[in-house]
Every structure is written in C-alpha cells, then in structure tokens.
C-alpha cells in the first residue's frame, strides 16, 4: 500500500514498462490496444468497462489531458462497436485542484457518453474523497440531468449501509474496498467486511436498484445467487464484475449459467498504483505477479 502511493516508485515504473506481471492485469497502454482486448472479451460473451489509469493529478493541464483522453476512449468504443462502459477517477480529472473545474470535466465526459448511450462509473477512491464523490455524483444527476452516471460503495466503510439506502434507484458497483483506511472509519476484520458486503448487496437488490457485484470471492457470489433465487430477483437487475486478468474461469462459469459478467479493464501507462493495490488485496496476487515476471 505504501508503494501504491509512492510517486518516485510510480515514476520509475513507467520507465520499466509492463514488467513484474503487470501485463496480466493491465490490458494495454493505448486506446487502440485496449479496444482490441475488449473486442476479444466481447467475443466470449463478456461486457466491459474501461478505466484509463491515473489519479491524484497536480495540474489543470494534466486533468484536461485526462478528460480529453476519456472522451477519445468513449469515441473509440462507439467507433469500434465494442460493448463497454467507462470508469473514471475524479482525482484524475482535477478534484483535488478545484471542485467546479472537476465537475466541468465530468460534464464533458458525460455529455459524450450520453450521446453514445454509454454509462459512466465514478470510481470510489480513498475515504478522504468519499463524501465529495457522492455529492458530485448527485449533483451531476439531479442538477445537470445526467442519468448515465453512478458510483461505487465500499463495504469496509462504516457509512456504506447508510449510503446505499440514500442512493436507492441509482446503479451502484458494490465492492469490499482496496485502500488502507483508519479503524475510525472502516472495518478492519475480514469477516465484518464480508458480512457488511452481503448486507449492502441485499439491501440494494431489495430496493429494486441495479446492482453490480464486484467480487472474485466465489463464496460471496454463491450466496448472492442463492439470495436472488430466494427472492425472485431477476438476473436483469444485477451483474457480476471482475477485474481483467483475475478468475477467468469463474467469469466463464457465471456466463454459462446465464448471468451478465462485466470485466473491469484498466489500461494506460500510469498503472503502478493500481497494480500495487491489487497485490495488497490478497497474498495470492503476489505469487500471481511473480509467476508472470519469471515467465518473461
């Protein structure tokens, strides 16, 4: 987790390229290369969401460049006729520089997405950005009229259940959480995080809201499937989401059972922070990365 936020290591990683197994979980460095990967996933029956990696920019120039890149990504999705949405991080779009500036950038992205009938997911970042992320998402929907935007709720946060209830009717991606947060705001015990994860999934489903269950945990997935059957919840009301490069067999198993599976596909050269957080989430991921490195 220290490495994920270390600017010196991040800068060095860009020079190394896709080593240490990153190519297994990051689909490419350019729009063109990642569109090819999405087309391959679509052929298997999987839908996608694209995430141009990068966060915590420090200048308006960087944020404008990131905004334009996301707009071009949406245009490439439309032109290539692949099936994919877009995921964005607002710190990449200038949230830490100026709130209104960030909203302006979001409006540019959402207007393009709406023109092409695409959905945009605002990724949730660390706790310090949680409230402002939810506030801006609501403003984009209620004030600016964009119904093609949703966000993410992390079950390790104490506030998660309250947030899910407040966001009834809004499409949400529900996750466990991938940042290291204080015991003052987040559960630290895995069983408590898992329990709350199932709790918010059930709540959002029972609220008749579209729910994206983003998990590689087959135990959680099995419980969700059993719950939806028990409560006669249509498979059209939810989807399973997994990260590119993880649990490929499970993705196909769910697809064969008739469930919608969306692959979260990250790309770009600013991949280091994302990759380090994936390694931190589960010890098994480190051996996964080393295996990729030594096979080069």
TrEMBL record:
Tagged with keyword Ribosomal protein: no
Domain of life: Bacteria
Cofactor(s) needed by this chain: FAD
Reaction it catalyzes: L-proline + a quinone = (S)-1-pyrroline-5-carboxylate + a quinol + H(+)
Gene3D superfamilies per record: 3.20.20.220
Annotated metabolic or biological route of this protein: Amino-acid degradation; L-proline degradation into L-glutamate; L-glutamate from L-proline: step 1/2
Main enzyme class: oxidoreductase
E.C. number(s) listed in UniProt: 1.5.5.2
Keywords, ordered alphabetically: FAD, Flavoprotein, Nucleotide-binding, Oxidoreductase, Proline metabolism
Domain called Proline dehydrogenase: residue spans: 35-288
InterPro entries: FAD-linked_oxidoreductase-like, PRODH_bac_arc, Proline_DH_dom, Proline_oxidase
PANTHER family to which the protein is assigned, alphabetical: PROLINE DEHYDROGENASE 1, MITOCHONDRIAL (PTHR13914:SF0), PROLINE OXIDASE (PTHR13914)
Record's protein name: proline dehydrogenase
Phylogenetic classification of the source organism: Bacteria, Bacillati, Bacillota, Bacilli, Bacillales
């Amino acid at each position: 987790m220290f490495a994920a936020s270390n600017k010196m290591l991040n800068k060095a990683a860009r020079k190394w390229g896709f080593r240490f197994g990153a190519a297994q979980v990051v689909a490419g460095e350019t729009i063109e290369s990642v569109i090819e990967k999405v087309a391959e996933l679509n052929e298997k029956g999987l839908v996608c969401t694209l995430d141009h990696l990068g966060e915590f920019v420090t200048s308006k120039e960087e944020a404008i460049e990131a905004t334009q890149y996301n707009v071009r990504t949406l245009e490439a999705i439309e032109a290539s006729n692949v099936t994919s949405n877009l995921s964005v991080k607002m710190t990449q779009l200038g949230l830490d520089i100026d709130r209104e500036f960030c909203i302006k950038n979001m409006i540019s992205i959402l207007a393009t997405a709406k023109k092409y009938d695409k959905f945009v997911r605002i990724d949730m970042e660390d706790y310090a950005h949680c409230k402002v992320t939810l506030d801006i998402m609501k403003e984009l929907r209620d004030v600016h009229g964009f119904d093609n935007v949703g966000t993410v709720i992390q079950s390790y946060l104490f506030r998660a259940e309250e947030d899910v209830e407040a966001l009834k009717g809004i499409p949400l991606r529900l996750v466990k959480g991938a940042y290291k947060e204080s015991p003052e705001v987040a559960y630290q015990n895995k069983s408590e995080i898992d329990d709350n994860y199932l709790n918010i999934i059930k709540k959002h489903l029972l609220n008749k809201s579209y729910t994206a269950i983003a998990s590689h945990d087959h135990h959680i997935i099995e419980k969700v499937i059993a719950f939806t059957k028990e409560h006669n919840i249509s498979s059209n009301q939810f989807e399973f989401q997994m990260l590119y490069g993880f649990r490929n067999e499970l993705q196909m198993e769910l697809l064969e059972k008739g469930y919608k599976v969306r692959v979260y596909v990250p790309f770009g050269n600013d991949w280091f922070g994302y990759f380090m957080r994936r390694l931190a989430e589960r010890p098994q991921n480190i051996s996964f990365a080393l295996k990729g490195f030594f096979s080069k």
